[in-house]
Amino acid sequence: DTGVSQDPRHKITKRGQNVTFRCDPISEHNRLYWYRQTLGQGPEFLTYFQNEAQLEKSRLLSDRFSAERPKGSFSTLEIQRTEQGDSAMYLCASSNTGQGGNTIYFGEGSWLTVV
Amino acid sequence: DQQVKQNSPSLSVQEGRISILNCDYTNSMFDYFLWYKKYPAEGPTFLISISSIKDKNEDGRFTVFLNKSAKHLSLHIVPSQPGDSAVYFCAASSPEPSGGSNYKLTFGKGTLLTVNP
Fold first, then answer.
1. Please, what is the end-to-end C-alpha distance for chain A in angstroms?
2. Does A25 touch chain B (CB under 8 A)?
């Protein structure tokens, strides 16, 4: 399978703990995105990278959140000192600016539950 | 301020009939529109897209119509099948500062489609 891969798929953590999610994009894609989805809402943009450069961050991304894409391939999203409001599905997506239309493809998501 | 609106939380149709899912947007800068399908506990799956320079795009059973003057788009599924039962998200993007398109999608809240056998 050469789609967007996310790990772990599910994570339950205690409030105050740190969690890290990993995303492996489609191999030839130079752009990588993080979105968050809560129940009853559509996905909300968090941040995106072009190669290793983080080009934009949403206001939703508080200073407890940090994302990296050190070699322009996989990316990690770390949440420090988790809060119950962080419970959501974290979606990674990728695209290739070289293609016409630049379709964005999503992974299966990482569910976070903060208890 | 919700820039992409899907006003119908749910839609139920009979197998074989047409499903029409609607989406309205407010940001006139949006120039690319996409529909995604999502099953529970999975990520969104891309279905079909349309550029603002077109008013129709067709792919198999799926057709998307865009009415720019009304800031409205719709997804038609013909014929509907039980496997089409899922949440459908409308998404839109505006040109990025460097001049490219289709980055940073803004999503609606989704419409749950149920196709009854």
1. 33
2. no
Please give the pLDDT value at position B102: 58
The CA distance from A14 to A68, in Å, is: 23
Q: Which segments in chain A show pLDDT lower than 70?
A: 1, 98-102
- Which residues of chain B lie closer than 8 angstroms to A34, CB-CB? none
Can you read off the two tokens belonging to residue B22? 């609607």
Can you tell me the mean pLDDT for B70-96?
A: 95
What CA–CA distance (Å, rounded) separates B59 from A38?
30
Enumerate helices (H) and strands (E) in chain B, giving the number of each: 0, 11
A8 CB-side CA count, 13 A:
9
For residue A99, the model assigns a pLDDT of 52
A82-100 pLDDT per residue, tens: 999 999 999 999 998 765 5
- Cα separation, A112 vs A79, whole angstroms: 10
H runs (alpha helix) in chain A: none
Sheet holding B72-77, edge to edge: B4-5, B19-25, B72-77, B62-67, B56-59
| B105 closest CB neighbour out of A41, A45, A56 | A45
Within 10 angstroms of residue A48's Cβ, the number of other Cβ atoms is 26
Query: From CA A37, how far away is CA A111, in angstroms rounded?
Result: 9
Q: What was the pLDDT predicted at B55?
A: 95
A-B CB pairs within 8 A amount to 62
Nearest CA-CA partner of A86 in A32, A31, A46, A33: A46
